[in-house]
Each structure stands twice: as C-alpha cells, then as structure tokens.
Amino acid sequence: MPVKRVDKTPMPERDAVLRSHDFKEVNEGYGIAHAKFEAERCLRCQDPVCIDGCPVRVPIPDFVHKIASGDMRGAADVLRSSNPLPAVCGRVCPQEVQCEEQCSVGIRFKPVAIGYLERFVADWEMQQPPTEINVKLDRAEKVAIIGSGPAGLVCAGELAQLGYPVTIFEALHAPGGVLRYGIPEFRLPKDVLDWEIEQLKKLGVEIRCNVIIGKTIAMDELMGEMGFSAVFIGTGAGLPSFMGIPGENLNGVYSANEFLTRVNLMHANDFPNADTPVMVGKRVAVIGAGNTAMDTVRTALRVGAEKGLIVYRRSDNEMTARVEEHQHAIEEGVEFHWLTNPIEVLGDEDGWVTGLKCVRMQLGEPDASGRARPIPIEGSEFVMPVDNVVLSIGNKPNPLLLQTTKGLESNKWGCLVVRDESSETSRDHVFAGGDAVTGAATVILAAGAGKDAAKEIHADLSG
Asked: What is the pTM of this model?
C-alpha cells in the first residue's frame, strides 16, 4: 500500500520473532527512495523552528533539502559540521519530543522523520571510501576530557576542530561510555559507534582507556605536571539506584546498569567464549518503564529468558520510554504489568530469587514530577513468580571524582554544580556537562552540553 503524504515514511524493521533471539539491529534504515520521499515532505519553512528543538542545533532544513535534491555528500557535510555523532543520534535520540515535535508539518500531519533522515545520511557516509580530515592542532593549550560518553566525545570533537590538542581519559577498557555499555547492539551496533569514534581520532583526539581520574591520576596532576589548561568532566551517571526493599541482595537481582554492561561491554551473551556471564532464568522482571528498562527486558529475551516482564507502578501514559521502543518491546512479546509496585523480592533457602511480591496501585493527583501519583490499593498484594529481578529506576553520578578532588561542589543528588548559565564548575578552568550535571538524561542532551562546554572552554582559554 502506498504511503500517504500526510504520514511519515515507515522505517523498515526486521521481523519481531526473528530479531527477539539475536542482537542484529532492529531498524534496517531507509533506502535512498525512502529518504528522498520523506525529505520532500519538508515545507522549507522561513522560520525553521525544528532547529530550536535540537540540543546541538543541527541546521535541519539544510541537510534535509540536500537529501531531496540528491546531494548526499552535502547533507553529510552539513550534519557533521554541527554534530560529531550523527549515526549515533539518528538511532537513539528521542526526536519525537525534540526536533520533530517542533516540525511545522506536524501541526496538521505527521512531522517529517528527521531522525530517520539523520541516520540515513550518516549510514550513507559510512559506506563511502575513507577520507582524510585535515585539522591543524595549532593551539598551545591542552584540554583534558574525563569520560568518553556523548558529552565527552562531542566536546572533544568541537575543541579539536578549533585547534586544541585534546586527550580523553576513559575508565573502562573501550571508549563510548553509556553509548557502549548502556545501549544494546540491536539499537546501536558497536561498529557504528567505533566508526564515529574513529572520525574523532582522525581529528587528532587522543583516547586513553583504563584510566580512572581520581584514582589512577588525580585532577591536580592533570592541571599540574601534565600541563592541561582546562578540563571537561563528562563522567555521566553510572551509579545505579535501588528501591531499598527486602530481598534486593538475593542471587539473581541486578541493576540495569550491571546487566547491560555485562552484555554490551563484557559480551555475556557469548559466554563461555567471554569471561563475564549473566545468569537468567525463565522469567525476568524489570522494574521501571524508561528506555533503559526497555533495553534491559529486550536484552533478557535475547540472552535466554522465556518471558520478559516490565513492572511499573504507574500506567503506560506515564512511562518515560520512547514510543518506538515500547512498540518494539510489545512486538517481541514483552509482558507489561502496569500499576504494579514491587515491595519485596522473595527467594529460596539457597538465596536465589523465586518471586516478586507486589501491590496493585491506583493513580491520584500529580506529584512533583507532573505525573499522576501512584497510591497503593489496600489488600491487593500478590506474588509474581520470577527467576530474576532487574532494577531500572535511575542512576546517579559516581562520587569518586568529588571525593578525591578539592574545590568541586555538588548538589544533594551528587551532581556537579556549575555556575549560572555556564558549564564551568566551582573550580576555575574545570567544566562539566551531561548526566554528571543533570543526572541521567538523554544522549542528545549530553551531546548538546558537550558542545556548549567546548565553546565556553574556547572562550576561557582565549582570554
């Protein structure tokens, strides 16, 4: 059936039954016909408000118009001039609540599929012969980046293009931060991430892995004998939160952070060929309903679980996961238990999980988050038989850097405090951005923070 001009051009997807048992990418990407058809839906607005919805302010109409005219190289150049990670952002960013939400076409019809088009252009660029990137690192001042997640990578790329020698220090054994350890292969293939990182290396960015700032090297060493003039902290929010309910210490209970890291970074799905296993039984319950929860429950199915369950104390109207990720989970057979709040993890005499005790909830008036407050229904307790419980209820910044560095201020949530309308911390020439400042948020917001910080570092070092 032909696509109506009022609708988005659909994204081709792999069959749900087949894909739920492997880690190959779910979305297959536009072909050139899809892309040109969709690009023609753009109204070429005189006031392109879609740009206002983009944290890195990609000149969206410019690259979309080049797709429509068949100038793919021009589209790629426009994209990469404003966003060093287009292949990543085209896959994982919530465009539907950012640039696409602002799209003028969306006033009457479905907005232009800006995210799908971004991915198409980036994928086209990856398929072209390698090109040399001529960048002259002619600034005398060196900049250190702590963390190689989206904020750190974007900040490094922007600074390198301004001529600064940049070194990224990454605690793990491979760069990418949450892009590598937190997002599954079926949403963001690692070869795509590796390609994007390679483009930054071509700009002259140095990446040093297995270095923990605050333990391997002190902050004072960076800005002292190592000679860095400025530092950007993009360490993210990798410390998982727990509910504090009985039974969380039982065998078979994971944080989503640990579960995904074991699979995404440590290749647990390839055990025993890899050294770090992840033990799943027949029924895996994931607590939470954000994007990480969807990633976790869909990963559980791929590593051997027969049933993946989402347990969430509110309804699907209050979930924070992307609509697309929710739909993909439904198609793959995930069970959703809405208005259900865990109150205890149950186990056997050997200390292994056997069930999840829950209470039914009803929704009351909105709370501080603006969402309806969940209220327990008296006498509604029940037990859900499960073999594993994974908590996906948020993350906080790791406190190590704060504990080992003088002069850095944090708020009550453990996030770094920056000066008003700035990325600079309470310590001169030390900047921060992304989840380390805001708490857990989105990839593109972190990328935007890295881009903003690069501008401020440049201004700071330029006097």
From this structure: 0.94
